[in-house]
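Hi support team,

I've been running sequence recovery on a batch of backbones for a student project. Most finish fine, but this one hangs at about 90% for roughly twenty minutes before it completes. I'm not sure whether the input is malformed or the queue is just slow. I've pasted the structure tokens below so you can try to reproduce it. Let me know if you need the job ID as well.

Thanks,
M.K.
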């Protein structure tokens, strides 16, 4: 069943998107990708009277500039990974050779989830620097780099909703960034996720909210960049501590695809309250069920890949299983679906336990096919 109409406008053509919204008489816009936020889509839409959910350009810099985010952490003493930012290649190189590996090299700007290299050796770190700053493989995003300490522990993604004043905690998830099983291969935009984290607790959630997420929103307000929307914190959890290593200015995927199915409160109530500055009137409630999501990717992803292959089996999945379309398009007939991106689909399911949700996901994902499709087999697998 089709529930929406695609509009063929590039996500970064803000004026064309606004024109389409006006022509289609769209009452509310929710921004998914990071690039339009970084380019000021919220500012522009608000200026012409179109209600829109997401942070303004200045606030979105908490994601679009690693150096800004790190300076915010330091200034307001928010627990985070130690880091240094360089715009000069030679200075960055001299710094790297003095560090003990592994070393984390991050492009300062947006890179669609591909601007992070966890270098196991000094040579790998130097190669990453050369790719970013000299070869400019990420364009302008890699002209400045953030060199970060390597944190050990368990990764967790935490989310809050905020209207700039009120901050409401949401729930957490764990994602899988590497393309292959056992966390092998290069980083991707995310190959799967699950919620809640197996190592999570109410005490941990409370600590994250009180020491990282709420202080970050307060800090943005004090900087004259009031943050409105959803704030995502990428965290590293150890036995005794938790630190943030990045912020995202959006729900992000694949995490959104496992946390939103757990939301009992109507998402529209939250979005409208954020836009109107009345979030304090909303109570966020979630189910205790677990959710697991697995991404299906095109052959060769995250490197070069081919698209345009028919996707079959979508009608064969169970009715209570969700299939989120990411890199797809309509074919020659209204009901033909073709692959049209790197990560093509995410299949997600709820269950009383993570194991039940995982079993349901993999049972259903095996029914979907397209040429070159691949997916990780170890999402939410703990044995």
């Amino acid at each position: 069943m089709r529930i929406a109409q695609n509009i063929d406008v590039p996500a970064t053509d803000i004026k064309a998107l606004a024109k389409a919204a006006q022509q289609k008489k769209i009452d509310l816009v929710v921004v998914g990708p990071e690039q339009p936020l970084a380019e000021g889509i919220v500012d522009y839409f608000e200026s012409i009277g179109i209600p829109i959910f997401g942070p303004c350009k200045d606030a979105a810099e908490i994601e679009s500039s690693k150096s800004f985010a790190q300076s915010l952490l330091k200034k307001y003493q928010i627990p985070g990974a130690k880091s240094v930012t360089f715009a000069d290649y030679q200075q960055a190189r001299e710094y790297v050779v003095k560090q003990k590996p592994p070393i984390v090299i991050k492009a300062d700007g947006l890179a669609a989830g591909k601007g992070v290299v966890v270098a196991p050796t000094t040579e790998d770190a130097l190669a990453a620097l050369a790719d970013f700053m000299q070869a400019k493989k990420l364009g302008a995003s890699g002209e400045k780099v953030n060199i970060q300490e390597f944190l050990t522990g368990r990764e967790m993604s935490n989310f809050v909703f905020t209207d700039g004043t009120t901050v409401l905690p949401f729930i957490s998830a764990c994602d899988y960034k590497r393309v292959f099983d056992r966390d092998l291969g290069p980083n991707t935009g995310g190959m799967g996720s699950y919620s809640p984290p197996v190592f999570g607790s109410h005490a941990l959630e409370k600590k994250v909210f009180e020491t990282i997420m709420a202080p970050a929103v307060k800090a943005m307000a004090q900087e004259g960049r009031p943050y409105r929307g959803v704030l995502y914190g990428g965290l590293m959890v150890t036995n005794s501590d938790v630190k943030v290593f990045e912020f995202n200015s959006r729900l992000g995927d694949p995490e959104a695809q496992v946390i939103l199915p757990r939301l009992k409160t109507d998402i529209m109530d939250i979005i409208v309250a954020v836009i109107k500055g009345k979030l304090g009137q909303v109570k966020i409630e979630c189910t205790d069920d677990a959710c697991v999501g697995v991404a299906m990717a095109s052959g060769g992803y995250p490197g070069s890949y081919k698209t345009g292959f028919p996707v079959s089996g979508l009608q064969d999945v169970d009715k209570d299983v969700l299939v989120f379309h990411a890199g797809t398009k309509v074919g020659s007939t209204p009901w033909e679906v073709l692959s049209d991106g790197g990560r093509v689909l995410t299949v997600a399911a709820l269950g009383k336990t993570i194991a039940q949700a995982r079993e349901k996901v993999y049972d259903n994902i095996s029914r979907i096919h397209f040429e070159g499709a691949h997916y990780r087999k170890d999402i939410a697998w703990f044995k």
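--
Follow-up from support: It reproduced on our side and the slowdown came from queue contention, not your input. The chain has a mean pLDDT of 94. No action needed from you.
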